[in-house]
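Practice problem 4.
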């Protein structure tokens, strides 16, 4: 039996035995929850821009719960899917367990500490700070559950379903169930498994007797032979289900996919025998206005929107992905590279996981594999990102040990590692190859390809790379061709690449059979590493040297999709480069910076542009217009008259630029290929603001701790067109059986708070997130000064 424990928690500051309890405040919270999100940001925060100017944090979660008397004699475990960080678990004020990693899913045996037939208490302590190069959040940011099992039971994570082979129209599927007898007598039990197809109908079943002596732990394997199976793949994600029961009581339902994954340097990556190139996005774990909270619907929505934008693969950077997001990837057909860590034993920040790594890496790898083992979306495990020691002999020993441990736990998936060659060289030859301003600055401004593929670099990473099935290269595309010649048995993936370079990189991937894909940094904007993708101008008040920007910058501003879920211009450029969009696209440089001096535009940045032709006050001014097109030539029409015609690809593949005079109306881009029109796209000038558009992504949601409603708010004119140049203060009120979980705009530089019900729109848009608090209805009311209020009703659990 598995019970959700996400409700009924209280949050307070930690107190020690010598602290006063007189002013202790308890705040009710519902999990998943980010305890750090509502803390005050400050320019003097210890982590500065890397942590989005949030402070360090220490928090205590508390909960009381009644333990029925009939549970006595059973095994009671707590499952925590993620507690950031250094979690300590106390039951009835007795220490029950701990975990160092903030992303590891783990179990704590509560049985020795419980009082049956009475109220019991949980206290979970967490601490964060100085542990990440991005915004980490803090607290119980993933779900918490209680498992109650009979002495003879199926172990947690004890059912594993694998595809043995698919051949001649028949799939062989193995279901391996791990049983344990924690009781004092021997028993013979019956293990039954029913396999259902994607339509829910039973297609095969098996039942076997199993004898277990006290203390036994055994694996029972059952094989099923499925004719004409529906295969799981990114285009057709067919999911089957295994329903496993022990003596008709202990029941587990496992979704799985029947699929094969192979890779080689001549034919690349193949899923079910079909070639697949990974159109990948690196993503961090935060959910924008929700902070680090991995609420199921937020994770699913991100996958939906990334899929719609043309991605077919995600890299979890740089920590294991949540179960909720993996479930969504399974359903939607998104491939996953699940990543373990951002460091091994050499620290990157002073409080990071490196000091815990020697003791915890094996349990944490085991936890990731156990979480992922039945998810068909997971095709690769990454054992690290930009690990400093992979260029050293003993770092290479460790790389091989980790890779082999992963294979011992799961031999069915590929093993990779995101290698930054420059970092490997820096740490092993510091006197020869030193960076005065930091690695990111070196890559951004001082020649990122320098020594990345020379003979010294090749020798340095050769041993650690040999332990991998696929070598992940971060910002080292110069190795694609050279490695094909030097290492004809090596398979590569662009595990992290500059977003602005996709027009150059994707043809390299397509023409290199040894390279299986490209993962851009990043698919979705994130909190922390602030402003690395923002254009800096000398005229700005906070113009200072360096890659990261000054307070109050909040986000990295380098995602194809912003934190509200809206696609930025680069996303449409990428879609065209991928060959997934026929029509051209228009983006216009913000004219308020027309005469400003650019002091920084890193390769993580795109042009400072939006798809808008509404620029009041700039009439007859000069405008730079970008057109993205899979074409030879483009023509710009203003109100039907041609104002520019130019070749595509002069400055950058699939891109053309025109400088034109601004005049309101309709701006149309017409793309020509071999002299024949290949598509067109138009944008229009909006009139004065006339009202608010309020769209709820779903009018019916579940009364569940993992469901949400996303409310998209836009400022429109009388024709329903988005007004980008007249932002307004928006106030949102939620009444009824729901609460406001968070609100934001995409503005990368703001002091506004995610828990505030009032935000300014940015480029005409804002987003609110509503979370159910009970079964019934919720009314969302949106107001802005001088505009008619708008209400929307959400039905919950009915």
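Answer key:
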């Amino acid at each position: 039996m598995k019970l959700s424990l996400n409700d009924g928690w209280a949050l307070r500051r930690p107190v020690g035995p010598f602290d006063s309890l007189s002013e202790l405040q308890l705040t009710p919270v519902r999990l998943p929850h980010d305890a750090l999100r509502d803390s005050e940001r400050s320019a003097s925060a210890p982590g500065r821009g890397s942590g989005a100017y949030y402070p360090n944090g220490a928090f205590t979660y508390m909960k009381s719960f009644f333990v029925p008397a009939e549970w006595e004699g059973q095994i009671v475990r707590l499952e925590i899917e993620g507690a950031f960080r250094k979690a300590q678990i106390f039951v009835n004020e007795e220490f029950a367990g701990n975990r160092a990693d903030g992303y590891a899913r783990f179990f704590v045996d509560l049985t020795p500490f419980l009082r049956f037939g009475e109220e019991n208490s949980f206290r979970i302590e967490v601490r964060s700070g100085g542990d990440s190069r991005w915004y980490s959040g803090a607290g119980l940011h993933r779900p918490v559950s209680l498992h109650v099992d009979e002495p003879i039971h199926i172990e947690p994570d004890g059912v594993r379903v694998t595809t043995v082979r698919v051949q001649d129209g028949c799939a062989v599927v193995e279901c391996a169930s791990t049983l344990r007898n924690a009781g004092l007598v021997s028993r013979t039990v019956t293990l039954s498994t029913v396999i259902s197809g994607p339509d829910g109908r039973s297609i095969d079943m098996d039942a076997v007797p199993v004898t277990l002596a006290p203390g036994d732990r055994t694996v029972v394997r059952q094989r099923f032979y499925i004719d004409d199976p529906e295969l799981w793949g990114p285009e057709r994600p067919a999911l089957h289900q295994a329903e496993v029961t022990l003596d008709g009581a202990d029941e587990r339902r496992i979704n799985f996919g029947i699929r094969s994954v192979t890779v080689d340097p001549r034919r690349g990556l193949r899923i079910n025998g079909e070639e697949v190139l990974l159109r990948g996005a690196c993503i961090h774990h935060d959910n924008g206005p929700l902070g680090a909270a991995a609420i199921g619907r937020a994770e699913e929505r991100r996958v939906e929107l990334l899929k719609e934008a043309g991605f077919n693969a995600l890299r979890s950077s740089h920590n294991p992905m949540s179960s909720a997001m993996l479930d969504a990837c399974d359903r939607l057909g998104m491939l996953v590279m699940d990543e373990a860590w951002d460091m091994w034993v050499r620290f990157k920040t002073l409080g990071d996981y490196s000091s815990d790594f020697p003791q915890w890496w094996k349990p944490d790898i085991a936890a990731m594999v156990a979480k992922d083992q039945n998810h068909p979306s997971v095709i690769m495990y990454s054992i690290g990102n930009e690990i400093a020691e992979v260029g050293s002999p003993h770092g290479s020993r460790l790389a091989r040990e980790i890779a082999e441990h992963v294979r011992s736990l799961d031999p069915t998936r590929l093993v990779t590692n995101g290698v930054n060659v420059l970092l490997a060289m820096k740490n092993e030859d510091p006197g020869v190859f030193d960076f005065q301003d930091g690695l990111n600055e070196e890559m951004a401004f001082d020649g990122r390809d320098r020594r990345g593929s020379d003979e010294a670099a090749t020798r340095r990473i050769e041993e650690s790379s040999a332990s991998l099935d696929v070598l992940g290269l971060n910002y080292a595309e110069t190795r694609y061709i050279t490695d094909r010649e030097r290492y004809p048995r090596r398979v590569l993936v662009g595990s992290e690449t500059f977003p602005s370079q996709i027009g150059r990189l994707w043809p390299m991937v397509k023409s290199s059979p040894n390279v299986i894909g490209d993962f851009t940094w990043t698919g979705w904007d994130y909190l922390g590493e602030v402003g690395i993708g923002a254009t800096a101008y000398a005229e700005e008040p906070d113009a200072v040297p360096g890659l990261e920007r000054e307070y109050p910058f909040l986000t990295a501003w380098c995602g194809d999709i912003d934190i509200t879920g809206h696609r930025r211009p680069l996303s449409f450029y990428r879609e065209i480069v991928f060959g997934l969009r026929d029509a051209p696209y228009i983006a216009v440089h913000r004219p308020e910076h027309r005469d400003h001096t650019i002091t920084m535009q890193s390769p993580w940045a795109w042009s400072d542009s939006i798809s808008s032709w509404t620029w009041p006050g700039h009439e007859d001014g000069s405008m730079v217009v970008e057109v993205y097109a899979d074409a030879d030539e483009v023509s710009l029409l203003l109100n039907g008259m041609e104002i520019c015609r130019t070749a595509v690809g002069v400055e950058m593949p699939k891109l053309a630029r025109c400088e034109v005079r601004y005049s309101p109306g309709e701006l149309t881009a017409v793309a020509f290929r071999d002299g024949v029109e290949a598509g067109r796209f138009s944008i229009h000038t909006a009139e004065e603001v006339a009202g608010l558009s309020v769209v709820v992504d779903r009018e019916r949601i579940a009364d569940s701790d993992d469901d949400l409603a996303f409310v998209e708010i836009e400022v429109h004119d009388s024709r329903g067109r988005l007004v980008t140049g007249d932002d307004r203060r928006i106030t949102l009120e939620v009444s009824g059986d729901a609460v406001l979980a968070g609100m934001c705009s995409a503005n990368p530089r703001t002091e506004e708070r995610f828990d505030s019900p009032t935000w300014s729109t940015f480029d005409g848009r804002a987003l609110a997130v509503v979370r159910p608090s009970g079964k019934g209805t919720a009314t969302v009311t949106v107001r802005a000064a001088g505009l008619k209020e708008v209400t929307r009703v959400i039905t919950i659990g009915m």
